[in-house]
Amino acid sequence: MKALVLAGGLGIRLRPLTRNLPKPMVPIVNRPLLEHTILLLKKHNITEIVFLLYYLPDLIKDHFKDGSQFGAKISYITADVDYATAGAVKLASELVDGTFLVVSGDVITDLNISDFVQFHHEKKALASVGLTSVDNPSPFGIAVADEQDKITQFSEKPAAGQIFSHQVNMGIYLLEPEIFGWIPEKREYFFAKDVFPELVKKQERIYGFNDNCYWLDVGNFAAYQQAHWDFFENRINLSIKEELQDGILQGENCEIGRAVSIEGNVVLGNNCKIDDHVILNNSVIGDNCRVGQSCSLRNSVVWNDVEIDENCKFDYNVVERGLKIASKTHAKENNFILD
Questions:
Q1: What CATH number is attached to the domain comprising 310?
Q2: Number of C-alpha atoms within 13 angstroms, CB side, residue 76?
Q3: How do residues 153-193 score in pLDDT, each as one tens digit?
Q4: Nearest alpha carbon to residue 195 among 86, 83, 79
Q5: How many Cβ atoms are within 10 Å of 55's Cβ, its own excluded?
Q6: Entry pTM
Q7: d(CA 175, CA 125)
Q8: What angle do CA 320, 84, 40 make, to 5 degrees?
Q9: Measured CA distances, 234 to 187, 228, 231, 239 (Å)
Q10: Strand duo 127-133 + 167-175: pairing
Q11: 85 found inside a domain
């Protein structure tokens, strides 16, 4: 089975994190989001992957190349304009000859894809939609299914007074090739707004697969931070590169100074240098970073190649890659620090 990964979005809601980076490439615990997607697919024996690209495509191609380094076979389709979700998938129609999986490149999940595939085949579905329950469904597509799991109502991003379900579309679908007949050529066309409501209207074979899995749409700054806190609190089991050494999850060639205080959970990437009297609390530090003497980092995420001079303080911040932070910098909470 092939997986088509939607990785072309502009990431507007996640700006400024995505001003120079595709949203699916933002690091989650020191791995690009797309790497976590590949690891999930491989866990369920899906290794043929097509990335559907639009925004800053070369950054994704240069990182993953042919996929062999990640144990996968990866190919790419780059759209000339933004055709939205279904329109982008339509571009891959000639690459698909059987049931295929579509995955949004901006979600973190541990969905049991193997069970999802079994469900899809048992239902003889044209389209199966991964569904999960959330407290506030208004930012997402919502669905109602009958006792046979057939979707009978579907609405995209309902207003507060129009919410008829807390079951939301996960952005993960199993589809049959005949779905391409429901998608026009080279037009902006959405699954949630266009294709699925039409399938429901025509009483086609569209089913909802409910799974009590972890799921997070990494669509804005708060969600980006939440992905890290959920990892620290063991709500999501992510595979990371770092290993536990001296009570800290750390990569290779890390140096930790005297009287360094480690509180809660801390992840250090490769080649990190932590100077004396630093306080680290529930934070992730990327590769090739230095944290200067007497700094305090709490609930913060530092991307790769950052140098932080002495006596700096960060609380609930994200620091962009490659920055040099002057001494005695005290950042406001919940900010993305960029040049």
A1: 2.160.10.10
A2: 20
A3: 887 766 666 666 778 889 999 999 999 999 999 899 999 89
A4: 86
A5: 20
A6: 0.91
A7: 8
A8: 60
A9: 41, 10, 5, 12
A10: antiparallel
A11: yes
